[in-house]
Amino acid sequence: MRVRALVLFLIAMSSVVAAAGQASAPSRPGAPSQGARPASEALPPATATMLQKRAEDFLRKLYAWGPEFQVKAGEVKPSAVPDLYEINVEVTLHGESDSAAVYVTKDGRYMVRGEIADMNGDPFAETKQKLVLDGSPSKGPADAAVVIVEFGDFQCPVCRQLDVILRELLPEYPQVRFVFKDFPLEQIHPWAMTAALVGRCSYEQSADAFWKVHDLIYDNQERITPETAYDKLLQLATDAGLDGSALRTCMADPKTTAAVHRTMAEGSSLAVNGTPTTFVNGRAVSGPNEALLRQYIQFTLQ
Questions:
Q1: Does residue 60 form part of some domain?
Q2: Which contiguous run of DSSP H or E holds residue 177?
Q3: CATH number, residue 227
Q4: Whether the model pTM is above 0.85
Q5: Are 86 and 199 contained in the same domain?
Q6: Which letter does DSSP use for residue 155 in this model?
Q7: Domain containing 232: what range?
Q8: Dist. CA 147–CA 145, nearest whole Å
Q9: 91-150: pLDDT as tens digits
Q10: Closest CA to 176 of 279, 44, 23
């Protein structure tokens, strides 16, 4: 799985409250704060700059981010909660960046780290809206009550572990739809993109044959090297009954690479930064977690 340089930042964005900056005198219970202003009102530039600076300074202190870290607080925006502003903070180290939203009170005293959820709605509605089910390999009923979407990398050993689990789990739940999306981690897996292109071109030739190729790649994962990947992967696809010449033409087509990049961008929009990452009706699962997959499936089916 891919390890991000700033993973602590994302992990620590849990729902806790911290004092952001120097404490001020507390208000009387029920009394309005001095200078109270609904978060929906236009924010004076000087106030926005102050909130950004306080957020940056506090996070540096909290995580011991020295001068080698670049910390940049973005636009101060109204949040779903009237008395909180939302600020997206980007942190960069050695050319690698991560970002997350924090929330600050209008007086700049308190910071809330984590997510804000509207309990009146579906907590996974936004995630499900971002998941594009059409145009990717899938199996199972089109109108399935449970949809599992995997962002996977054919060279990822942990993805292979998940594949072993799914080969036994999915037949137990024929009412589940499974969708596979490419998310090759090119920086650490040198032949992952080549495998993604073979898979995409296999799917375009035959939706059914894709799954044969999918399984063959995982079954032969340890036998494939960066030097032999192109020929070996093509051979596996032809062994599955596909036209080798058509595969080569398809793999060389920029549209095929663009299709893979689209699924990668889709995953990134959902904060996917490692493989395998699956979504069960919008609920994210990292790694080959069979118990959690079953829990989410059974919860919906029940």
A1: yes
A2: strand 176-182
A3: 3.40.30.10
A4: no
A5: no
A6: T
A7: 125-301
A8: 7
A9: 999 888 888 899 999 999 999 988 888 899 899 999 999 999 999 999 999 999 999 999
A10: 279
